[in-house]
Amino acid sequence: MRVELEVWRQDGPRARGRFETHVVEDATAEMSLLELLDRLNDQIIAAGGEPVVFESDCREGVCGMCGFLVNGVPHGPADTTPACRQHLRAFPESGRLRLEPLRAGAFPVIRDLVVDRSALDEVIRAAGTVDVAAGTAPEADSVLQPRGQAERALDFAACIGCGACVAACPNGAAMLFAGAKLAHLSLMPQGRAERARRARGAARVLNEVFGPCSLYGECVPACPAGIPLEAVAVVNREVLRAGLLGRGRDN
């Protein structure tokens, strides 16, 4: 199987980027996109060139490291599937792929297909944590929670932080990501004490770092974890709730 690749190359954050064309003659339909990049890098190194820089870790679809654009789509053509689980059999017979880094104002390019996604860390610092008493080990049954509510919280907690939702959004918004964090923790008993503080923190980072949400909904099919569009509404609901409570209260 012959695959022609247009790959974005950029030597550093301030360097001028460009596309390079390469051909992999011995690709197979079972290859994932990352395996295809591995094969390409074998060829480039054998020819004395610099390999394409890209991120990966688990290659099992749960770490969120491997995001990039494939023919203009975050991760690739299969909905709710990370790049490491996208296989060449999912592509049309054209045999031509265009690979480039996630495009978003909040994600500056570091090198080649690698971007700086630390803006998502700002959301986590502001809205993705709870304070607990360190050194304690309470009885597991001491904090009760209905099973359905716990399962719903876990559905939102499935977000892997890959940033595909931001790259898919025409405005570069991170509402789906932030909403997943706020929804998860607001549904857990341990997260209710600082619920209003997290909502205010999320709103601040979203306004300062990311673009506004216009409810295009393109973030949902790009999300490997299948986070529903409801997460966007959660952000607005939690911010409104925090405003009604007033700044003097955290819950």
From TrEMBL:
EC number: 1.3.99.1
Gene3D superfamilies xref list: 3.10.20.30, Alpha-helical ferredoxin (1.10.1060.10)
Keywords: Iron, Iron-sulfur, Metal-binding, Oxidoreductase
Pfam family, one: Fer4_7
Domain named 4Fe-4S ferredoxin-type: residues: 150-179
Keyword Iron: yes
Any one GO MF annotation of this record: 2 iron, 2 sulfur cluster binding
Cofactor(s) annotated in UniProt: [3Fe-4S] cluster; [2Fe-2S] cluster
GO biological process, one term: respiratory electron transport chain
Source domain of life: Bacteria
InterPro entries associated with the record: 2Fe-2S_ferredoxin-like_sf, 2Fe2S_fd_BS, 4Fe4S_Fe-S-bd, 4Fe4S_Fe_S_CS, Beta-grasp_dom_sf, Helical_ferredxn, SDH/FRD_Iron-Sulfur, Succ_DH/fum_Rdtase_N
Entry-linked NCBIfam families: PRK07570.1
Family label: Belongs to the succinate dehydrogenase/fumarate reductase iron-sulfur protein family.
Protein name as it appears in the record: Fumarate reductase iron-sulfur subunit
Gene, per the UniProt record: frdB_2
